[in-house]
Design brief:
Elements: E1 9-12, H1 22-28, E2 31-34, H2 41-52, H3 54-63, E3 71-76, E4 79-86, E5 93-99, H4 108-122, E6 127-130, H5 136-143, E7 146-147
Parallel strand pairs: 5-6
Antiparallel strand pairs: 1-6, 1-7, 2-3, 3-4, 4-5
Helix pairs in contact: 2-3
């Protein structure tokens, strides 16, 4: 049972950070960050299920119901190493997202986050909600996210299964 606060955060999509060259740096390091094709749904959802659990895999499946998919993946050497979704649990929500531990600390999570948030901005959203936040400091630093008061447990109250943190 998770006893840590899991509040929501709000991001101003009209004030997102500009390209800082991280995409090129990640590409040079052998990472490809892109939207998966619908034909890759089973691969992505199985990978999410294996590494992050059934709850997040279910949300990734919902992200694939959008056209184009509301999902981005990070691939290195033909293998998925990270993912991020939007409009999955609820419309206008970012998440779930995850990067394999051995690939963390290189900016992949931030880049996947920004890809999703820019896609949401292009869909016409002015703000995005990051639901059930674990690493609040990461979101504050990466995109200026602010906590939404009174949002713990928020929309996840009464969920029937644990969502991994």
């Amino acid at each position: 049972m998770n006893t840590h606060p899991m509040h929501d955060m709000l991001v101003r999509l009209y004030d997102l950070p500009r390209d800082d060259g991280s995409g090129q740096r990640l590409a040079t390091a052998g990472y490809d960050i892109r939207r998966p094709l619908p034909a890759e749904k089973h691969l992505v959802c199985d990978w999410v299920r294996t590494h992050f659990g059934q709850g997040w895999a279910s949300e990734a499946e919902v992200a694939f119901s959008l056209q184009p998919p509301g999902c981005y993946i990070a691939i290195q050497a033909g293998t998925i190493v990270g993912f991020a979704c939007h409009d999955a649990a609820y419309r206008n929500f970012f998440g779930p997202t995850g990067v394999l531990p051995q690939h963390r600390g290189q900016g992949l999570g931030r880049h996947l986050l920004l890809e999703c948030l820019h896609a949401m901005r292009h869909q016409g959203y002015a703000y995005a909600i990051i639901g059930g936040v674990g690493p609040a400091d990461f979101y504050r630093k990466a995109v200026g996210a602010v906590s939404i008061e009174g949002s713990d447990p928020g929309v996840y109250k009464g969920i029937m299964s644990e969502i991994p943190v």
